[in-house]
Each structure stands twice: as structure tokens, then as C-alpha cells.
Design brief:
Blueprint (H helix, E strand, L loop, with lengths): L1 E6 L14 H10 L4 E6 L9 H10 L3 E6 L4 H14 L3 E6 H5 L1 H5 L6 E3 L4 H12 L10 E5 L2 E4 L27 E3 L2 E7 L2 E2 L10 H4 L5 E2 L2 H15 L3 E4 L8 H14 L4 E6 L6 H9 L2 E9 L3 H6 L6 H11 L5 E8 L6 H14 L3 E6 L7 H8 L27 H22 L2 H4 L10 H14 L15
Parallel strand pairs: 1-2, 1-3, 3-4, 4-5, 9-12, 12-13, 13-14, 14-15, 15-16
Antiparallel strand pairs: 5-6, 6-7, 8-9, 10-11
The chain binds cobalamin and iron/sulfur cluster.
Cobalamin binds next to helix 1, strand 3, strand 4, helix 4 and helix 6.
Amino acid sequence: MKILLVNPNMRTAYNPLPFPPLSLMSIAAVVQDSYEITIHDRNLYKDPDGKNIGTVLQRAKPDIVGITSLTGPAILDGVLVSRLAKEAGAQVVWGGTHASLLPEQTLQNPYIDFVVMNEGEETFRELIEAIEQHRGYKNILGLAYKEDGQVKINPERPFIQDLDALPMPAWNLVPVERYIYRYTNARRKIVTVTSRGCLFRCSFCYVIDFHKRKYRGKSVARILEELAFLRKNYGVDGVRFDDDLFVINRPRLREFCDWVYKKDVPITWDSNCRADQVNPEFIGAVTRGKCHRLTFGLESGSDRILKFIEKDFRAEQIVRAFDLLNKTDIMTGAAFLIGVPTETEEDIWKTIDLAKRINAYHTHFYPYTPFPGSPLAEYCRKNGLIQYPERLENWADFEYARSDRTAMSEREMKKISAQFEVRNVLHSLQRGELAILSNFLNLEQFQNFRSWTGFFRQAFRSGVRGSVHSAEKPIL
Ligand code: B12
Ligand code: SF4
């Protein structure tokens, strides 16, 4: 059996750097000893009309093509690859967040044969075996498929409790060098994931439906083993832990930081965090553990909105956390949502004021998008604010934050976002964070340059220095 796993093109102005396709690397690791398996990352080259991947498929003639999915523009690329894969005679399997949350609609697409829902390692292995041995699919937990034109959805598969039992992600199947980037405090940094799920309940987030608010984490010994592997084989000296919430398990975090400190592990790291996790004890632990950056989903400066989206912290906790963080050397990132249902112009200005007050190293404003299955998307649906798109493809450009639904016009919101992005670059230059910019001098990363220049062209065109509202205060 020949298997080709494809990471569709996910790059947008917001995500210009390629990320290692950890989902595909994790499922590949489980089956690579038994099957001929290849990973193909479409983020590493330009191929908008699919000529290149079409040729790859026609030459390799894989039996199975697996594609990962997120709600967003990558869906269109995934559908393009699925069509070409079917033309080459393959069975097409989708997995990942979007397909897991909407398996039925995903399977209504004529080019998709199977959906592996939620965690993929065991379900995918059983599916390959069933295809190979021409067995039926009805006993495979976590699988959705078509039978006589009908979509069948099997019962859920219980989560893998012991993530240490999984093999190391298949770094051997990807061009690791393409995913290594420079950062302040790290010459060779890469992204990895050490846990799954989160215990919080932010109503816009996918974890509630996807991970059922269950958390599973690799042990500290296993994390250190993976870091040692990355260091030994690829000279990695910096890591971004892109877990849903790396810091959530406090005993694990403390143990990890103590080990890094005691053994002087030559790696710095960054991760997501929540404002309500930050206190002097936390800062002491992560500083000892060589954390160099923490990014926060802060969402809003309005307590009413924070309550509405069930963020379970208040604006004053954000201020307190940043008052502590700003006294340390830890770099900070702050992400805010804009255009959330019920948000007023006053709420938006509270958010802008808070963003300026806490003065994170980098501040991002993202327009709210309802992700299928999240409680907030369901709220929008029930209240007639949105209708879910009828076809898989229409999720590619599905937006909520449109002028007819939000307090500010789309243009004004984009302008706020662009102004903070420009502020980020100016702050980075002031702080001498030139390492980040030096990524563009790396020939292999040079193609990213165009995505960034496009973004800043747009930002400046929106009038960076102009106020976002006739009688308002400028952001910069
Ligand atoms: C890295 C990352 C990215 C990378 C790309 C990842 C990649 N594939 O190359 C970048 C930065 C490009 C990215 C972009 C976006 N992302 Co993102 N991203 C992540 C992140 C942090 C890690 C993903 C990961 O590797 N997880 C680890 C692996 C092991 O878990 P997994 O992906 O769930 O994979 C498992 C299963 O899903 C399944 N599986 C997955 N794929 C497949 C495929 C097959 C064939 C099979 C059988 C199984 C299978 O098996 C895997 C192992 O169990 C997640 C959050 C998280 N911690 O998971 C968000 C996350 C996936 N992203 C999200 C979002 C919203 C986005 C954006 C829309 C953000 C934006 N506004 O720009 C964009 C989409 C851009 C686009 N063009 O469509 C949401 C997804 C919500 C949704 N409904 O899809 C998440 C969950 C974050 C969040 N909390 O909201 N993202
Ligand atoms: S947004 Fe972050 S803290 Fe909130 S539920 Fe999702 S992963 Fe957890």
C-alpha cells in the first residue's frame, strides 16, 4: 500500500511562515514501518492550479491520499488535491479539526471518501488495514465513510490517554530545515506540540467540541527526550510549544522547568498562556525554565465581552499579569478578537485602550470567525446571525466580522489590526529584535517575503497613521 499525506496550502498574510505538519507526522509515525508513506507539504512551494501535485499523484499512484484540514482558505486547496487524487485513482481521507467537526458535510464532497474524526493515529491505522484487506468499516471507531451513497458515522474513539505511547513524530519524512527559523534568543527554532486539549471553556474555541474539555499531556521525560532528539539531529536551540495550553498542567510545567534549570538544557522556549495563570510563582518557574516568550489570547478589554465569551478572567487580571511580566525579560504576545457578537464600539475602544496599556511586545487583532461546533458559533446560528455554509468549500472564506453584523465596519476593523501590526514591527526595530527579520535573508525562507510585503502594503494603504474613526485617538 502506498500512502501520500498532504498538508494543503495554509499560508495567508497572517501565517506567512511554513509550520511542520505535526498532525501528518504523528499519524505517519504510527504506520511508517508497515507501509510506504510520504508527506507532501504544499506550503513549501507555489502551485495554485495543482500542476505540481497532479504530476506527483500521477507518477506515484498512491492507494490512499490523506489530507489535513482547518476551517479556512486551506479547505479549497484540500479540495483541489482531493479531486486530483481521485483522478489518479486514490481513496481520499480527510482528518483534522474542520473535517472532524463537520464529518457529514465534508463527506458530501464527491472527492472525499473517508473522514477520520478527532485523534487520527489509531483510526487511520485501522482504516488502512481495512482498505488493504477489503474489510468493512463499520467497526472502526472514530471513522465516517460513505456506503451506497449514504454517509455513515461510527461511534467516537476514546482519546489516547498515554501520549508517551506514541512514537516520535516522523521528522524523518519532512524537510526539517524548511521549518527552522531564527528568533530572538534562538538561532534555530522549531514548532512542536506536547499535549492535547484544554480544561477551559472559551466559547469561540474548538477544544470544547473536539477535545471535549479533556487534557492529555506527554510526560516531562518524554518532552526532554524529544528536545534532545531535535537538538542532536537538527541543531535546534529554540522551541515553540504550540499546544492548546502548554502551561495548563502546573505540576508538569514546574517539573519541566526544574529539569531545564538543573540540567541546563540548552534550549529556550515559548508557548501560549492565559492571563489568570500568571503570578510571581509562575514567573519564577518559567524564568528558571528558560521561557523566552509567552503569548496570550486576551480577546477583549471589556469585562462584559470577556464574560459573554466565557473567558473566565477579567480585564484587571490581564493588567495585573502584564504588570508582572513587563518587569521580566520574557517577551509577550497579546491576541485580541474583534467583531465578536454583541460587541459595541465602546467595547472595542476598551480593548484598544487595554492593548495600549499593557504594551505587549507584539499585539494582534483578529476578526472573530465562528468555528463550527463552538458554543459561540452555535449561539450565532440560533440567533439568526449566521447560517452555516451549505458546502464544504464555502467555509474557506466564511467570515462573521462584517459591517452588517458588527459595531465597526470591516474596513475600520482591518485598519485597527493593520495599525497594531505596523506598531509591532516598529517596536521590534526599536527593541533590536533583528533576528526575526533575518529569516528573510535565509534563501529557503525568501519566498515568505512576498506574503509579508503584501500585508504591510495593505496596512499602509489603509492609512496607518490615520485614526480609525473620525473623532478617535490614533493607535500609534
Ligand atoms: C500549527 C497550527 C497552524 C499552522 C498550520 C498547521 C499545519 N498543518 O501546517 C498555521 C499557522 C498555518 C495555522 C493556520 C491557521 N490556523 Co491553526 N493551529 C495550529 C495548531 C497550533 C497546532 C496544530 C497541530 O499541529 N496540532 C498537533 C496535531 C498532532 O494535532 P491535530 O492537528 O489535531 O492532528 C490530529 C488529528 O486532528 C488528526 N488529523 C489531523 N490531520 C489529519 C489528516 C489525516 C489524513 C488523518 C487521518 C488524521 C488527521 O490526527 C492528528 C493526530 O491525532 C492548532 C492548535 C493545536 N494545538 O492543535 C491550531 C488550530 C488547528 N488552528 C486553528 C485556526 C483557526 C487557524 C487559522 C484559521 C487561523 C487564522 N485565523 O488565520 C489558520 C488557517 C489558515 C488557512 N489557510 O486555512 C484552529 C482550528 C479551528 C478549526 N475549526 O479548524 C486551531 C485548533 C487553534 C484554535 N484553538 O482555534 N495553524
Ligand atoms: S482559547 Fe485557549 S484557554 Fe480557551 S479553551 Fe481554547 S485552548 Fe483553552
